[in-house]
Every structure is written in structure tokens, then in C-alpha cells.
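Intended use. Records such as the PorT family protein entry shown here are meant for training and evaluating sequence-to-structure methods. They are not intended to support clinical decisions.
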Amino acid sequence: MRNIYLKTIVTSLCLFSAFASFSQVELGIIGGPQITSAKYKIEGEDQPTDHKYGVQAGLTMKVPFENNLYFAPAFYYSLKGYKVTFNKGAFPPSDEAINNDTKMHTVETAALLQYDLSKNPNHFFIKGGFAVDLIISGKEQFDVLPRGTVNRNMKFSFGDYGRITASTNVHFGYETKSGLIIFAHYAHGIGSMNNADYGPRIFNRIAGISLGYFLRKNPNVLDTKVIDK
């Protein structure tokens, strides 16, 4: 099973390398803090949740598509998690648990479209699209009365947590002529990370701010300022 996850990561990196070989493609690095939580339901009833702090860091691209529209895939590491208090029991983590605090290390591949709001070298932009994340590992801590606190690795299988989920993503940011970028991002989970029958429905929610820098700017992007003669 681990070979499958490794192949997924290697395949994503190879695709990035292939895109980066084209002269018009801009390749950049991104990273920043984020706040993560989850929409958590047991038998259709919302459970109280709280946020945790995380981080993301990785690679982004900007591939010319049409006019101000670009294909902007991204591949990045994401540290996420959530805290939840249960009104009723459910597995996972345990029918007897009264709460849960999780932390997950994931890698995500995003297929995004970017629209530049101006043709100027310094401009605002918006992005939107979908992402698939692969949970590499996770920890959970929950209380079980009267036995106490349980600390353990999260279990991933067809009858426990699922390793793969999906989300819709929206970005709004600003890009400078020099290649610096800053953007706010939001990810809305659309795939539950629980595989257990009759278990909870868990959808990730993530918001954050990231900085980035294009390592290679597109040489065909023209400076629109007046050229002195």
C-alpha cells in the first residue's frame, strides 16, 4: 500500500517537471500558515468543532491558456487537523469517545484555473478548482470515560479513516512583476474522510494566507510601461 502512495507522489512531481520544461510555464514556490477544522456529523447531527493551526508549502505553476486565463496546478504539503466534541458516540475513533483531537500530514494535488484581473505586470488574480489530498500519517487523542485519554496513530482502511479526500478551492491574491505573490485561500472538503459504515461524516475546512515566488517568470509577458527613447 505504501508503494501506491509513493507512486502517487512521484507521479505528481514528474508531471510538474514535464510542465516546467516548457518555456512559457512559470514555476513557483508557495507556503504559509493556515487554520483548519472540519464539518463533523454523526447520524446527520452536527458536532461542535474547534480549529487548529497548520501550514502548507509546495510548488505552483502558471501555464498560459487563453488571454488572462491560466492553468495553475499546485502540489504541496499540508498540515491539518480538527478538534471535535461528541454529542453521541461513533466509530471512528470509538463509540465510547467523548471528543477527538487530530493532526494529519498530507500531500495535495490541485487542478486550478487562474484569471488575472489585469494585463499589468502587477495585478490581482482569482483561482478556483479542485484538489485531492493524500493523508500520509495522522495522530488522534480522545477521552474515553472512565478509562482516560487515548493517544494513537489514526487507522486507515476501508473500515476506518480514508486516506484520500477531495475539496473545492478558491484563491484571491496579488502578483508582482518581480514574481512575488501573496494570496488568501479556502478549501471546502467535499469528500468524507471516514470509510466506516454508519460512522461520522467528516469534511475538512481550511483557510489561510500564503506567500510565494515565481522562480522563472514567463519571458513572453511584456512590461506595459512607457519605454524611454
